[in-house]
């Protein structure tokens, strides 16, 4: 038995510019401190409906089956796969980074057969390769892909992929964890059947909640399942008895929702509406342009071509001779700035710099460029004083 005496935890004040979480807006933090009510309280139920409406706005959908899963984005991913994939189903999974691999594992754990269409990390998705896989595997039921690949900074051509899927009578499951609120995302217009996201990226909220949305086609497939969903907690036929009040009857208890975390999501969605969805996307892009100009002035490049590059997740190539881990440690210790390391095939080759939600501001960009310049100079890297911030400032908003 431990006799360690615990004291209150007081975390350092960081600037979060890694791949997530991003900085939480003070309004969102304040919302979390409001009095807790019961998860079946009438006031909380009113807020639940407002959250669903806010998520429909964020996803750009009229889907009735749109709600937040009471768990992080990985649970939203699993919710989509365990409900839509039945044993024996063939699912084509596009992998252009780490998170496509997680999709494949979800398919297999649900008893499905995963057909992997893989691309080099940092490179664009080639539509013809996906088309060939759909034609070769005519029995495929689902096409799954990551819209905004957090491990590489690559954006997928979501509309074109959804068009391909529909032409081959496939549903689509789309990872929108990094894109929701930061990139153009039109669930209804593009024909996305199931999408999942997370609160800790462009919505400026804490981690722990996963917004999801399902089309009528997806809902019909779930209703026609011949086998039980392997997860009790994520079984939509049970969860929606709590979240769906369209019939006007009493909600059925399913789980105790994280009440205060839902307050946070609600406030984040209020703020998204106040700013405007297109305006939020434009802000992320404008801050990316400033960061890009500053990085280039420091002699640092982005590994992803501009034609398929994300604004909110920047993969920065590491110059020869630079100790990348030492740079990350330097900026954390001296500037309280967090930037991310590379994953998988890009480990040791890139830094991942996030510009998401409340972290997509000019203050964040300037601090990041100043800190990187300082850290690089500490390793005798040659750079002109103030070059990065000057270049960033020269870029118009």
TrEMBL record:
GO terms for molecular function: alanine-glyoxylate transaminase activity; L-serine-pyruvate transaminase activity. The modification N6-(pyridoxal phosphate)lysine is found at residue 201. The keyword Transferase applies. One of its GO terms (biological process) is glycine biosynthetic process, by transamination of glyoxylate. Substrate binds at residue 352. Transmembrane segments: none annotated. Keywords: Aminotransferase, Pyridoxal phosphate, Transferase. PANTHER family: ALANINE--GLYOXYLATE AMINOTRANSFERASE, AMINOTRANSFERASE CLASS V. This is Alanine--glyoxylate aminotransferase family protein. It comes from Temperatibacter marinus. The lineage of its organism: Bacteria, Pseudomonadati, Pseudomonadota, Alphaproteobacteria, Kordiimonadales.
């Amino acid at each position: 038995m431990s006799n360690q005496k615990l004291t209150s935890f007081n975390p350092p004040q960081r600037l979060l510019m890694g791949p997530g979480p991003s900085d939480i807006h003070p309004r969102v933090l304040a919302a979390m401190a409001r009095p807790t009510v019961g998860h079946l309280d009438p006031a909380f139920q009113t807020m639940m409906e407002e959250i669903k409406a806010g998520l429909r706005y964020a996803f750009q959908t009229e889907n009735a089956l749109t709600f937040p899963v009471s768990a992080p984005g990985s649970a939203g991913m699993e919710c989509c796969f365990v409900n839509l994939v039945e044993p024996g189903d063939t699912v084509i999974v596009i992998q252009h980074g780490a998170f496509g691999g997680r999709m494949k594992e979800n398919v297999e754990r649900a008893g499905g057969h995963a057909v992997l269409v893989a691309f080099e990390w940092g490179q664009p998705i080639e539509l013809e390769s996906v088309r060939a896989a759909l034609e070769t595997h005519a029995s495929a039921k689902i096409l799954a892909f990551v819209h905004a690949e957090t491990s590489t900074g690559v954006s997928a051509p979501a509309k074109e992929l959804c068009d391909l899927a529909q032409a081959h009578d496939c549903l689509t499951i789309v990872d929108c964890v990094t894109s929701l609120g930061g990139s153009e995302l039109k669930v209804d217009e593009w024909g996305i059947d199931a999408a999942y996201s997370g609160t800790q990226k462009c919505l400026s909220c804490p981690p722990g909640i996963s917004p999801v949305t399902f089309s009528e086609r997806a809902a019909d497939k779930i209703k026609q399942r011949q086998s039980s969903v392997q997860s009790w907690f994520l079984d939509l036929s049970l969860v929606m008895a709590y979240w769906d009040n369209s019939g006007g009857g009493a909600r059925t208890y399913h789980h105790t929702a994280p009440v205060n975390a839902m307050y946070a999501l609600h406030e984040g969605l209020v703020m998204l509406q106040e700013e405007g969805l297109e305006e939020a996307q434009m802000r992320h892009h404008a801050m990316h342009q400033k960061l890009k100009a500053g990085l280039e002035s420091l002699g640092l490049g982005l590994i992803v071509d501009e034609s398929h590059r994300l604004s909110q997740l920047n993969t920065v190539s590491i110059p020869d001779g630079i100790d990348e881990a030492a740079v990350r440690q330097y900026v954390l210790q001296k500037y309280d700035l967090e930037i991310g390391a590379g994953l998988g095939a890009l480990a040791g080759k890139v830094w991942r710099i996030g510009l998401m939600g409340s972290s997509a501001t000019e203050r964040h960009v300037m601090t990041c460029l100043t800190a990187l310049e300082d850290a690089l100079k500490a390793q005798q890297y040659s750079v002109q004083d103030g070059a990065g911030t000057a270049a960033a400032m020269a870029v118009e908003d």
